[in-house]
Amino acid sequence: MGKVKITILGSGTCVPSLKRGSPSILIQTGDNNILLDLGAGTIRRLLETGITITEVTHLFFTHFHPDHTGEFVSFLFATKYPETYGRRIPFIVAGGRGMKDFFHGLREVYGHWIELEPGIMELMEFGHDRSGHFDFGSFDVQALPMKHIESSIGFRIMFPDGISVVYTGDTDFCENAITIAGGADILICESALPDELKIPGHLTPSLAGKIATQADVKQLVLTHFYPECDSADIEAQCRKTYDGPLILAQDLMEIKV
Question: Residue by residue, what is the 3-state secondary structure of the chain?
Answer without folding.
Answer: CCCCEEEEEECCCCCCCCCCCCCEEEEEECCEEEEECCCCCHHHHHHHHCCCHHHCCEEECCCCCHHHHCCHHHHHHHHCCHHHHCCCCCEEEEECCCHHHHHHHHHHHHHHHHCCCCCCEEEEECCCCCCCEEECCCCEEEEEECCCCCCCEEEEEECCCCCEEEECCCCCCCHHHHHHHCCCCEEEEECCCCHHHCCCCCCCHHHHHHHHHHHCCCCEEEECCCHHHHHCCHHHHHCCCCCCCEEECCCCEEEEC
